[in-house]
Amino acid sequence: MRHLMSPLDFTTEELDRLFDLANDIERTPGKYAHSCDGRILATCFYEPSTRTRLSFESAMTRLGGQVIGFSDAASSSASKGESVSDTIRIISCYADICAMRHPKEGAPMVAAEKSEIPVINAGDGGHQHPTQTLTDLLTIRSLKGRLDHFTIGLCGDLKFGRTVHSLINALVRYEGIRFVFISPEELRVPDYITDMLKEKQIPYEEVIRLENVMPDLDFLYMTRVQKERFFNEEDYIRLKDFYILDTAKMALARKDMLVLHPLPRVNEISVEVDDDPRAAYFRQARYGVYVRMALILTLLNII
Ligand code: NCD
């Protein structure tokens, strides 16, 4: 039995197979409409989510399966003091696979140790968000045809943004990747990540001004300032609108650059950018369903 805790749990060859499957599902969804008949997905979400939870539910439903679950800790037995380990033992009796989001780093891993069904980490605190990374990689591969030889700018909250941490971890396995980290001083990417890049001799630079680097980028991955992970409101208010991508900044970018964002967006991308053909974030959300369909089939050994 296999779980998904980090994007590195799959080799790059396994990821290629997963993405091929996701692209096949995109082309011929009817072929997979009954692949999960009689199977149940449990979504255990101890932290708010729209996209991740609903895209999992949509994925399982489109495969013919059913979904049970809860969408906040207050409505689960966690509010009575039940541990994650006990909860997953019970969920193992009710479902065939579980997607879990938790505010505590490592909680889905604790669950996986006691689980009798595959557990998917659907985001654990500021740590990892592997299914968002699978979504990001599938989007890049589908829109550009490859996952190597890119300069990718990551902009915004690089300190608390788990999607950023997971994506960097995943991209370092491909050749010719160069990172440009764009953030205010207070929200710089954690040292453990820059240490890892130095050790692997992967080129990166850290800058504050987005305008200066726009022309260099193949991708710009925008992120929201993670309000819920701030210790004080004042810092959040000071930093929340540090970057706003607008048409003036887009004019500095290449014609074939693509803008990604895991969403939800707050103010960091002005809505006028949505009409720019280089804005790929809504297409990215669609790939999130295909990749989760492929992941469910893979972890349940149906394909
Ligand atoms: C992200 C998350 O939850 O980390 N959202 C998502 O799953 N698409 C990004 C965010 O909340 O900013």
Biggest beta-sheet profile: 5 strands, parallel
Secondary structure: number of strands:
9
Average of the residue pLDDT scores:
96
Gap between N and C termini = 14 Å
- Ligands: N-carbamoyl-L-aspartate
Strand order of the largest sheet: 7-6-5-8-9
Number of helices: 11
Helix content: 25-40%
Q: Can you offer a commentary on this structure?
A:
With 303 residues, this protein is an alpha/beta fold. The chain is built from eleven helices and nine strands. It has helices at residues 12-27, 51-62, 84-94, 107-114, 130-144, 162-171, 191-199, 210-213, 233-239, 247-250, 281-299; strands at residues 40-45, 66-70, 97-102, 119-124, 150-155, 177-182, 204-207, 219-222, 258-260. The strands form two sheets. A five-stranded parallel sheet has the order 7-6-5-8-9, covered by helices on one side. The protein has a four-stranded parallel sheet with strand order 2-1-3-4, with helices on both faces. β3, α4 and β4 (119-124) form a beta-alpha-beta unit. α1 crosses α5 and α5 (130-144) crosses α6. The protein is globular. The two termini are 14 Å apart. The model has no long low-confidence stretch (mean pLDDT 96). N-carbamoyl-L-aspartate binds next to α2 and α6.
Structure characteristics:
single chain, 303 residues, alpha/beta, 4-stranded parallel sheet, 11 helices, 9 strands, 38% helix, binds N-carbamoyl-L-aspartate
Secondary structure elements and pairings:
Layout: H1 12-27, E1 40-45, H2 51-62, E2 66-70, H3 84-94, E3 97-102, H4 107-114, E4 119-124, H5 130-144, E5 150-155, H6 162-171, E6 177-182, H7 191-199, E7 204-207, H8 210-213, E8 219-222, H9 233-239, H10 247-250, E9 258-260, H11 281-299
Parallel strand pairs: 1-2, 1-3, 3-4, 5-6, 5-8, 6-7, 8-9
Bound molecules: N-carbamoyl-L-aspartate (NCD).
